[in-house]
Amino acid sequence: MFRMGKRLFENVISGPVTRLKPREPFEGERGHIEIDISKCVFCMRCARECPCGCLKVNRVDGTWDIDQFKCIACGTCASVCARHAVHMCCSYRKPAEHKKVNMYKGNPPGKRKKAAGSAGEKA
């Protein structure tokens, strides 16, 4: 009986433990993935490293797709991106009424053309 009384008294004095909404994000909180498609070089490393397979990168067409319903917000894609094109936002995305895949269109880097008279050419 004494322990319950002590706990009740501590809870009354300490104040609320929960936060009211809207709230500030916690440090290290993961929300959702965003991409800056202008920085992306379509190396496909994010898609290869993604544990749930929610990313599809097409180097030829210059498209980058993410299925937010498959994404578990682990942050692996953001950590392996060499150009820092993919990053995690602290805010959660808005609720969706139906399932859809977000598609981004960018400009993949073109293939390098060999210069005329280079050392690798045979005469």
How would you sum up this structure, described in words?
The chain is elongated and about 75 Å long. The model has no long low-confidence stretch (mean pLDDT 82). The chain is built from three helices and five strands. It has a domain at 25-110: 2-Layer Sandwich (Alpha-Beta Plaits). A hairpin with a 4-residue loop joins strand 2 and strand 3. With 123 residues, the chain is of the alpha+beta class. The protein has helices spanning 2-14, 45-49, 76-80, and strands at residues 32-35, 55-58, 63-67, 86-89, 101-105. The protein is 19% helix and 18% strand.
Give the SSE layout:
Layout: H1 2-14, E1 32-35, H2 45-49, E2 55-58, E3 63-67, H3 76-80, E4 86-89, E5 101-105
Antiparallel strand pairs: 1-4, 2-3, 3-5
The gyration radius over C-alpha positions equals 24 Å
Instruction: Tell me the structural class.
Output: alpha+beta
Described by the principal axes of the CA atoms, the overall outline is: elongated
Give the biggest beta sheet: 3 strands, antiparallel
